Amino acid sequence: MPIEIKELHIKINVDEKATVTTTATSIDEAKIMRAVSESVEQVVNIEQRKKER
């Protein structure tokens, strides 16, 4: 049975004082950005399917 997500709440805390610049964090940031963009694409697809109904 498929699960339908009706609402998605995302909460983040941003610490502006933390500034770490290493190659490991830039790789992690790239992975995070890729995951976020894929999530946004999935949400857009869900909304488009919802409109088609």
UniProtKB/TrEMBL annotation:
InterPro entries: DUF5908. The lineage of its organism: Bacteria, Pseudomonadati, Bacteroidota, Flavobacteriia, Flavobacteriales. It comes from Chryseobacterium luquanense. This is DUF5908 family protein.
